[in-house]
Amino acid sequence: MLFSENLLIQRICRDLENKDWHRHCSPQGFYPLAGALIPWLAAAALIACTAGLYLGFFVAAVDAHQGEVARIAFIHMPASWSSMLIYLATAASAGIGLAFNARLAAMAAQALAPTGLMFTFLSLWTGCLWGKPIWGSWWVWDLRMYSELALACLYIGFIGLHTAIEDLHRANKAGALLLLAGVLSIPVNFAAVPSWTVQHQGMLSGTMGTTGPGAGELASLLAMSMGFLMYTGAAALLRLRCIILERERQSDWVARRGSGAP
Amino acid sequence: MSWDRWLEFLQMGGYALHVWGSYLVVPALVLIELVLLRLRKREILGHLGWRRDELMRS
Questions:
Q1: Which of A73, A145, A200, A245 qualifies as a FRET site for A18, CA 20 to 30 Å off?
Q2: What residues does each domain of chain A span?
Q3: pTM attached to this predicted model
Q4: A100 CA to chain B: closest CA distance, Å?
């Protein structure tokens, strides 16, 4: 395992020197690279999330007004940020796939979307559980929550559209257009808090008491966010490898790999 | 930490349902996603006719 990883790293370094790196951007070239990256990303995610949980429960101060329930922040905020960041990555991949007819980029969009949807659901779920004790209601029709719900709909729309259209090229095209049109929901989400919102607090006003988050709170938020993003990397690469094999199953390199040839 | 402190910790100031309901759903979702990915991989590898040692290797 380690030996083959060393060989892979040597090969990538050599290709970088020879400006030959693009060979790793094809599905065939990326497949082993993705496989080598997954355990590192998974380990990093585990370490970051453990650190984030420790900081969130044992170092971060309790909010003066909300009490212990404010600890939901250390899940809710990283999940919300991840959901939006993953959306941007998905849309960018699909856009690159559309513009340059890059197969791997189109596949990456498909690999990222389900994990993005998972974090969107997590953001909504934890938001409801936080809203109930603090606002007295599971759900409020507030612009920020509208836009997170819209994000969930966009993810579901992209996945559904891609599944529904049989022709792969058309499915990629339609999915990319939907994702790119939906990018507008991200700035809406960020504009929502200072300008429009009646209910949802901004991070620096209200959520963490009057003085805003301290070092412990920020460190926990940062660690959890990193952990979520590393996990996303690992899960998306696992899915990407499945997608590569599914799409390329007729090709020679898959057959060679399967028969045990190098 | 003593037992009372643990109990107090688990109660989360009376918000146990909300706090743990938020935190525990994360490993649940992650587990579901990983199981689905494992099944998907097994299906495509079975379709390709790859053997188990190749499954380990890839």
A1: A245
A2: 36-258
A3: 0.89
A4: 28
